[in-house]
Write a structure and sequence with these properties.
Layout lengths: L3 E9 L2 E9 L9 E10 L1 H8 L10 E2 L3 E9 L9 E5 L14 E4 L5 E2 L6 H23 L9 E4 L4 H12 L4 E5 L5 H6 L4 E4 L15 E6 L3 H10 E9 L13 H5 L3 E4 L7 H12 L7 H4 E5 L4 H9 L6 E5 L5
Parallel strand pairs: 9-10, 9-12, 10-11, 12-13, 13-14, 15-16
Antiparallel strand pairs: 1-2, 1-4, 3-5, 3-7, 3-16, 5-6, 6-8
Helix pairs in contact: 1-9, 2-3, 2-7
The protein binds NADP nicotinamide-adenine-dinucleotide phosphate (NAP).
The site of NADP nicotinamide-adenine-dinucleotide phosphate (NAP) has 31 residues, from helix 1, helix 2 and helix 3.
């Protein structure tokens, strides 16, 4: 097979450097299914991996990108055949195995998910790891009896990939969504995708007592750190906080008071390790009852492989909004 392009990350002289490279299929990590990529997308984790700002990649060189959608070219596993529309997110993909910023990917069959019938390859990546993570949040919140009656639902890091899809899906499910953001110019975007209220994170007083007035029926938190600590203090009795991210810090400085006096629950969300059957179930929900309604507004950019370094830089600086899809097959 002819050579193809990939965004490959190297460790050279103790520095992590990402750039376009020409590869053959033989250069790719092993797996039973070879996929011709249509689209990938950029997640915060990819920006950390592609620049070396975070220790994400576990071997070098490695193609970055934790998301991919495309068409099966060949499969040594009976579950898939040439021409199938498939996607891959999570597991070791783009972490310890060549990922989705590549014209071809080769992965273990266990990682491959059929793209649901009503979803296009583009939509699969507009949703990607971000949307899948929101579906996992919803499932865990529902399992723990979250309901709109518990009060307003707050989404932090609301203009980000996970945040914007969370605003969309939670509002569609009947929640009155408060979008917490650091971007003063994002009011229109956030209300257009379902937020009832937009709250500026820069005006919050985060250093209050262990319990403050309850304000939130529940939360999806992409930020961590002081914001997550503040959420624990301000969530109503029996509310749930789904802890997704660390864009604002990984430390959590709170007390047991919200948990033992208000019955607040902190739900850990780990999309990467989600078991296969449950993963298929959540992708089916994303094509049905959890289908985002505003993907046209949530996808703010479609870029090519060569644009990735600029996207990473902006994302790490907190300047991106919504989802950035990477169009990899020039015919798509
Ligand atoms: N647990 C999981 O399975 C899982 C899955 C996917 C992602 N994640 C994590 O979830 C987070 C969001 O991922 P993403 O792909 O949606 O990233 P993203 O698109 O970059 O969104 C992150 C958002 O967080 C806010 N933010 C950025 N820097 C901040 C800071 N210093 N303090 C407070 N807020 C800040 C910004 O929103 P505003 O400007 O609107 O405030 C930003 O848009 C990341 O930490 C990522 O690693 C975890």
């Amino acid at each position: 097979m002819a050579k193809f392009q990939a965004f490959r990350v190297f460790r050279e002289n103790n520095e992590v450097v990402g750039r376009l490279d020409s590869l053959t299929v033989d250069d790719l990590d092993q797996g039973e299914v070879l996929i011709k990529t249509a689209y990938s997308a950029v997640n915060y984790k990819d920006a950390l991996a592609g620049t070396g700002a975070g220790k994400i990649l576990r071997h070098f060189p490695c193609n970055a990108g934790v998301d991919v959608s495309g068409t099966v070219v060949e499969s040594q596993d009976k579950r898939f055949k040439e021409g199938d529309s498939v996607l891959v997110t999570g597991y070791e993909f783009g972490v310890d195995h060549d990922g989705g910023f590549s014209e071809y990917v080769r992965v273990p069959a266990e990682w491959v998910v059929p793209v649901p019938d009503s979803m296009s390859l583009f939509e699969a990546m507009a949703i990607g790891t971000a949307g899948f993570t929101v579906a996992l949040c919803v499932q865990r919140l529902e399992d723990n009896n979250q309901s709109p009656e518990l009060g307003q639902f707050i989404v932090t890091g609301a203009t980000g990939g996970v945040g914007s899809i969370a605003v969309d899906i939670m509002s569609s499910l009947g929640y009155e969504v408060v979008a917490l953001t650091g971007k003063s110019d994002s009011n229109d975007l956030l209300t257009n995708i379902g937020a009832s209220h937009v709250l500026d994170r820069n005006i919050l007083k985060l250093d209050g007592p262990p319990l403050e007035k309850g304000q939130w029926g529940g939360a999806i938190d992409n930020v961590g750190g002081d914001i997550l600590a503040w959420l624990t203090k301000t969530t109503n009795p029996w509310g749930n906080i789904a802890a997704v991210g660390l864009a604002g810090g990984f430390k959590l400085n709170t007390t047991v008071m919200p948990f033992i006096l208000r019955g607040v629950s902190l739900l850990g969300i780990n999309s990467q390790g989600c078991p296969t059957n449950f993963r298929h179930h959540l992708w089916e929900r994303l094509a049905n009852d959890l289908a985002p309604k505003h993907l046209d507004k949530i996808v703010t950019k479609t870029v090519r492989l060569e644009d990735l370094p600029g996207v990473f830089e902006n994302m790490l600086a907190g300047k991106t909004t919504g989802r950035t899809v990477v169009a990899i097959d020039p015919n798509e």
